[in-house]
Amino acid sequence: DSCQFLTYLHARIPRVDCSEHGVLQVKVPWAEPRSQFTLLFERLALDLLKECDIQGATDILRISWDEAWHILERAVKRGLQRKGEGVVAHIGIDEKAAAKGHKYLTLVCDLKASTVEYIGDGRKQESLDAYYGGLSESQREGIEAVAMDMWEAYIESTLDHVPGAEDKIVFDRFHILSHMAEAVDTVRKQEHQLLKKQGDETLKRTKYLWLYGQENIPLRRKEEFERLKSLDLKVGRAWAIKENLRRLWDCPSREEATQYWRRWFWWATHSRLEPVKKVAYLIKRHLHNVLTYFTHP
């Protein structure tokens, strides 16, 4: 816009009819080929698209949804061309829900640069194979560490494509502790149902309290939580086991972490809490790539 008026730039751009390459158009300094917007307008559009959703940006800019997406596509293409080929030494792999109905995307990120390197459809092995398949041999060899959750498809793809992947995969603590948090919540639900049958509402509205870490419990509920912890509750034991697992990553070395793990594993598997035991055995099956954290912190 110029002075709040829609402004159109009209120009007869020179074209040549080449016998070898067909019809070619001269590149103009104010716009991308096949774009009906000036570069300055596209820059404005990109700033808006970073600050609000597609619909909001199109309403302000008075362009269509498709036109907004084409502007984004051209920006991504320019960025990739500038980026060139390089080695991403530390990558993170995760899934992201893209829509309702269990539709997922596979995301690969550069953990040092905080950039998205690849997006693939689905969360199958082939979804990640496509990323590795696009790398050169030297790029795959340059990968030093791969952070991921314990999703078998991602594990198999990485083992197939990354040299020495057995010692480069690191199962990140966020996903491991998510499994433990789910176990604590399952224990709470089971115990709440038993207590409710006896007319005891002790655990009513306490779901999120047990999911907090000790340092994050809201001040207004600290007294309530201390009282709950003093009771002989199964969920209290499950929470304590979860909190102690968090300390594994504070160990100064892999050797000390291994010793700590053995003590924690004995406690978890002798807790008589089936959801907690299930997670303990899950971690044990993948323990080598949990402890690779101490090589690739």
Would you kindly provide a written description of the structure presented here, covering whatever features stand out?
With 297 residues, the chain is of the alpha/beta class. The chain folds into 3 domains: 15-83, no CATH class; 90-170, Nucleotidyltransferase, domain 5 (2-Layer Sandwich), CATH 3.30.420; 173-294. Helix content is 48%, strand content 13%. It has 12 helices and 7 strands. The chain has helices at residues 39-51, 54-61, 65-83, 125-133, 137-141, 152-161, 173-197, 222-230, 234-246, 254-269, 274-285, 287-291; strands spanning 15-18, 22-25, 90-99, 103-110, 115-121, 145-148, 169-171. The longest helix has 25 residues, at 173-197. The model has no long low-confidence stretch (mean pLDDT 93).
The 3D shape can be described as elongated
Quaternary status = single chain
The structure class reads alpha/beta
Which residue ranges are poorly predicted, with pLDDT under 50 across at least 5 consecutive positions? Answer: none
**C-alpha termini separation:** 50 Å
Helix and strand sequence: EEHHHEEEHHEHEHHHHHH
Radius of gyration (CA) equals 27 Å
Domain unit count: 3
- Beta-strand level of the residues, as a percent range? 5-15%
Helical content, roughly?
40-55%
Count of strand segments: 7
What descriptors fit this protein?
297 residues; alpha/beta; Nucleotidyltransferase, domain 5; 3 domains; 5-stranded mixed beta sheet; two-stranded antiparallel sheet; 12 helices; elongated; Transposase_DDE; Transposase_HTH; ISL3 family transposase
